Amino acid sequence: MEGAVVLLDFWPSMFGMRTRIALAEKGIKYEYREEDLRNKSDLLLQMNPVHKKIPVLIHNGKPVCESLIQVQYIDEVWNDRAPLLPSDPYKRAIARFWADFVDKKIYDLGSKVWKTKGEEQETAKKEFIESLKLLEGELGDKAYFGGENLGFVDVALIPFYSWFYAYEKCGNFSIEAECPKLIAWAKRCMQKESVAKSLPDKEKVYEFVLHLKKVYGIE
Amino acid sequence: MADEVKLFGMWASPYSRRVELALKLKGIPYEYIEEDLSNKSSLLLKYNPVHQKIPVLVHNGKSIPESLVILEYIDETWRNNPVLLPRDPYKRSIARFWAKFIDEKILITTRKVSFTTGKEQDQAMEELSEQLKLLENELKGKPYFAGEAIGYLDIVVANFLVFWFRNLQEALGINMFTKERFPIIFEWIEKVVAIDVVEVCRIPKERHLVYIRTRLEAIKSASK
């Protein structure tokens, strides 16, 4: 079952972070390979010919693409420890729904927050906060979305926390002021080793965003 | 206590139809509620407050939105044949990958094909053709996407491509999705439509053509 595990990734990718966390939660040893997205490796192009994107999880030479699909794969193969999805079908459906919600909303809205200005940015900020508030509602009084432990939705969402500082600086707002419960949840997640060692430093991410803004000619 | 299963759907939606097909294949009795999307019912808004969309499955009062999430829920709750998702984790990941590809990439390309003309439309059709070829590759050496019998990915492809897209292409007056260009997919289509519940779940063609033409006109005049 063990077999060689390789992860093709890019350090600031929230999607790559999800897979890193899942692998760490399960205690799986793997080889991490940093991709230069301006000069993609032959291996990446061969393993993900359809999208040519990271992250790509390679297990025993076979590729699994798309971060949430990778997390489910990891959960299903290494099913003897640290379950990420609940066993009840209804609870699984709810977890999948909210992970899908994170995919549909948080990345695009967050991107708009740092990429745009003026009214477009104000609208993006408003919708971004609204989406986070919906997630706060789903979290409720639980320690994690997964209940007592990290679950699928926690893994799907927490990587974005490493980008919150960059969003806040670019958007000139405080996410904690609007969503204190969510930030409390995020800090709780960061106390877990699997999360702490999978997320990059927020200052580094902010520097990266500033660099991207220069490259794209965004003020 | 008997199971109570309700499906909030819309007759022209391939997402709604895919859930119906899964329920029918598994022989699960359900009550179907047709939604008027221009006047959504309070029940729909109650059962899917986040997205306010169909389809929504309600099982013994518990609601599940998002068609792909619903398909997995159905498979995990009613474990009789046909088993929709492969048992092997690697094969499951492949099935999920292609379902996502259809819902995210192919859908966007079909929109481009619908709303552009001339050279732009030609380019969109070319892009769509490439995407369909990638999908066709998945069928090579197998009677169904799922293997020996109809499964999750067959349900997704059938509703999107076989029924919905072929009607759309006719309404648009284009003919890019043909047996000549996609022999393997068309061979698969013949097998799939021979399954009686699949025919029952087909979007009624004439009504659909009228619906598509009306909607396209409305969207085009709104954007002028």
UniProtKB/TrEMBL annotation, chain A:
Catalytic activity: RX + glutathione = an S-substituted glutathione + a halide anion + H(+)
E.C. no: 2.5.1.18
Top EC class for this record: transferase
Entry's localization field: Cytoplasm, Cytosol
Segments forming domain GST N-terminal: 3-82
Superkingdom to which the source organism belongs: Eukaryota
Record protein name field: glutathione transferase
Organism whose genome encodes this protein: Hibiscus syriacus
Automatic annotation (TrEMBL), chain B:
UniProt keyword Ligase, yes or no: no
Chemical reaction(s) catalysed: RX + glutathione = an S-substituted glutathione + a halide anion + H(+)
Cited Gene3D superfamilies: 1.20.1050.10, Glutaredoxin
EC nos: 2.5.1.18
Domain GST N-terminal: from-to ranges: 3-82
Main localization of the protein described in the UniProt heading: cytoplasm
Keywords tagged on the record: Detoxification, Transferase
GO biological process, one term: glutathione metabolic process
InterPro entries assigned to the protein according to its UniProt record, in alphabetical order: Glutathione-S-Trfase_C-like, Glutathione-S-Trfase_C_sf, Glutathione_S-Trfase, Glutathione_S-Trfase_N, GST_C, GST_C_Tau, Omega/Tau-like, Thioredoxin-like_sf
Gene Ontology CC terms, in alphabetical order: cytosol
Family: Belongs to the GST superfamily. Tau family.
Protein name: glutathione transferase
Annotated source species: Hibiscus syriacus (Rose of Sharon)
